Amino acid sequence: MSQRLRLLSVLASSLLLSACVSSPKKPAPVEDRNPQPARTAAPASAPVPPAPTAPEPKPAPGAENAGKPGYYTVKPGDALIRIALDNGQSWRDVAKWNNLENPNRIEVGQVLRVVPPGVDAAAVAARPIASAPRAEARPLDAKPAAASASAASSAAVTAAKEPAVKDKDKDSAADDDTLAWGWPVANPVTAGFDEQRNKGLDFAGKPGDAVLAVADGRVVYAGSGLRGYGNLVIIKHNNTYLTAYAHNRAMLVEQDQVVRKGQRIAEMGSTESDTVKLHFEVRKLGKPVDPAKLLPAR
């Protein structure tokens, strides 16, 4: 009996050992104490729109004519009356040739025709003056400073004796060689021509002294649109010569009026001057020249 029990015990031990070898233990589950969020696929990036391109700057009026003979490119500080004077033209003509609705509004870089349409600019050879001092622009149609009562009455008397003749399209056709010159005043010269510092002649005088046209021509400007010149009269004598009369107390002519040599056109004064004087200029194709070389001996 005991032998049988021992046999059963051995058999049971063998079975237990076999079960341990053939059935390995499963590992205990691992607990993750720092869970990470589930990863999702990154969305596709939206296309970036191209940066807007700046519009190309609009070319200034007349830019296609820049550098051509007979045209002028506007620079900072320019005024139409100065451009016209430096090219021997009437500012109204320049405004008309360039279809300027407002002659007081020109822009830097704008290219202006400064010779009449159809004229050979190379033959005319209009030359701007690079060394001319800058003039501050004023409205071209601004009224000149009021003259004194005596000046006004004098102007009325003069107008009665010398009736104005309107002729907008006619300039003196006198040839340069035959243009008859006279003196603008009988007063002494106080400052001569200097190409750098004085573009004409200065004459001393008293308020109200007569200022005379030095030759036949047409008034192309009468106003106070250039600072430094005061009340200014400009006369065009032909396609070559202009004359300018500055600092007047009173102006006795008006724009587009035809005048004759020796005609009283203004009275001496001190507008924009520290003394009473006449500043007189002669422009040949826009360039200041020494009046003393053209005026007759006296």
TrEMBL record:
Name of this chain's protein: Peptidoglycan DD-metalloendopeptidase family protein
Organism: Roseateles hydrophilus
Origin organism lineage: Bacteria, Pseudomonadati, Pseudomonadota, Betaproteobacteria, Burkholderiales
